[in-house]
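Fill in residues.
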């Protein structure tokens, strides 16, 4: 029997429960024998109610079938008989060696999508302020508070997912420099996020900053370094400034007295986007065969004689 079939059968038998008492039967592949017409056959008994079963597992082409017949009681009809049919695509999805990699890539893509939406929110609210001004614009103020909160929250989620999926993804090669660039740009964002965990919102204001791309002065969200470099409520736990790694870890790259938040968020988002794209390309390069095989074996196939109605 191929290792692949063994893997699918292991999954198929992993959650079979007793027909009589609903207890887990704890079927193990090692307890079954390879059959001639059947894939596997064998006997088992329920450890709770002692019901005895003959197990038969067969390959029907698109699915694997498990049938269990009671052997300790006289069966007149179908009573006492169990049948489980599971499509191979589903079993593949649950057991394929590339599944953690694929799921990791998908989760990362979704986390980036949320970051993207929140970055757009920041951009949009800055545009409103540039067009309408901020004085007396309470709606814009609410939007800024919400947009900053959402971006910080989604940056946290992104990093959580990144560290969870990290062991399943290739992190060497071209990913390495994209990752260190992202980590560098994350410092300020993480610092601001830590600050928001202790204060309801960030002490932002709108300031005219020179846009280096257009050489124009424009209104943008800023935060005074002085206002955030100390978290008074947490200095006992993390002396001297309330930041575990020290506030200079987060803010030493800031030139001047103000943090250009819009700019920092844009740079953070771009480096996250670049990181995900590098991980994608590199994963597809080094795991091409497994990814191809995953796609092929988990895509639903229809046989011609299958009734699709
Ligand atoms: Zn039982």
């Amino acid at each position: 029997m191929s290792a692949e079939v063994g893997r699918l059968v292991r999954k198929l038998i992993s959650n079979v429960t007793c027909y009589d008492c609903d207890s887990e039967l704890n079927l193990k592949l090692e307890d079954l024998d390879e059959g001639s017409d059947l894939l596997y056959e064998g006997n088992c008994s329920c450890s709770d109610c002692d019901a005895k079963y003959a197990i038969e597992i067969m390959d029907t082409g698109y699915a694997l079938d498990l049938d269990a017949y009671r052997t300790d009681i006289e069966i007149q009809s179908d009573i006492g008989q169990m049948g489980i049919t599971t499509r191979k695509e589903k079993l593949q999805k649950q057991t394929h060696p590339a599944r953690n990699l694929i799921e990791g890539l998908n989760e990362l893509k979704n986390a980036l999508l949320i970051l993207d939406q929140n970055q757009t929110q920041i951009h949009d609210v800055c545009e409103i302020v540039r067009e309408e001004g901020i004085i007396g614009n309470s709606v814009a103020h609410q939007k800024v508070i919400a947009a900053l909160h959402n971006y910080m929250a989604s940056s946290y989620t992104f990093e959580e997912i990144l560290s969870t999926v990290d062991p399943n993804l290739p992190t060497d090669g071209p990913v390495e420099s994209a990752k260190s660039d992202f980590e560098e740009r994350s410092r300020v964002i993480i610092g601001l996020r830590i600050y928001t965990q202790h204060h309801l919102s960030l002490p932002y204001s709108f300031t005219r900053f020179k846009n280096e791309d257009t050489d124009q002065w424009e209104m943008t969200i800023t935060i005074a370094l002085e206002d955030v470099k100390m978290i008074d409520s947490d200095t006992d736990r993390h002396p001297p400034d309330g930041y575990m790694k020290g506030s200079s870890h987060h803010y030493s790259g800031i030139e001047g007295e103000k943090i250009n938040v819009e700019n920092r968020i844009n740079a953070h988002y771009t480096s996250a986007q670049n990181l995900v794209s590098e991980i994608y390309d590199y994963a597809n390069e080094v795991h091409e065969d497994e990814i191809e095989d995953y796609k092929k074996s988990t895509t639903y196939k229809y046989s011609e004689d299958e009734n699709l109605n």
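The first strand starts at residue 33 and ends at 34.
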